[in-house]
């Protein structure tokens, strides 16, 4: 009678694989950052006249095609990651600017001015527009996606809106974020800079939008009858 053949536990294989990944983690993070930065540079150079090739991106990053496809299934996946990375960077900048203000209204103003500043610097505006143009192929436009507006950016408005008396600070933050980022997108596509008066008007609009209101539907101005 033959001895039964036992299969080694997968725990050993899993443990060794995790150890290998842990050792390679910093290297992989560096590769991803190089690819993101290189892709942004190539997209900036191409503008809205041509789309970058994977070959151009890996050459600029100084990595191999294998490295590219190790982290991204396609160029569209890389563009989506650039959008996410840009939104996080903008969110960090806005949080820094808002932290300088003590009053909630000042924080809202700093938020609006920070968002619209993306259209007041020519280099930043041109780069953001080029990313937007490329993002059209992945259906993740900066001005429409919840990742860009509601998730990292609108969250920053919830606390000041609550302090200003909003009954629905989360909803108000989402609405204001979509409106403001949508206006930013418009400025970028028109290649126009917002004027100081326009920025001030948008700030006032956002503050009026969160004025304290009663819960429920307002009473009809016509009264009963």
Key features of this structure:
about 220 residues, mainly alpha, about 70% helix
Task: Describe the protein's topology.
Layout: H1 10-46, H2 54-61, H3 65-71, H4 75-99, H5 104-116, H6 122-135, H7 150-163, H8 169-190, H9 196-209
Model description:
The chain is built from 9 helices and no strands. The chain is an all-alpha fold. It has 2 domains: 20-72; 77-212. Helix 7 crosses helix 8 (169-190). The longest helix has 37 residues, at 10-46. The radius of gyration is 24 Å and the shape is globular.
Count of discrete structural domains:
2
Q: Could you tell me the number of beta strands?
A: 0
Described by strand count, sense and barrel closure, the largest sheet is: none
Look at the helices and sheets and give the structural class: mainly alpha
**Mean pLDDT across all amino acids:** 83
Measured between the Cα atoms of the first and last residue, the distance is 96 Å
Q: Per DSSP, what share of the residues sits in E-state strands of 2 or more residues?
A: under 5%
Query: Radius of gyration, Cα only, in angstroms?
Result: 24 Å
What are the secondary-structure elements, in order, as H or E?
Answer: HHHHHHHHH
Shape descriptor reads globular
Give unreliable regions as ranges. 138-149, 214-225
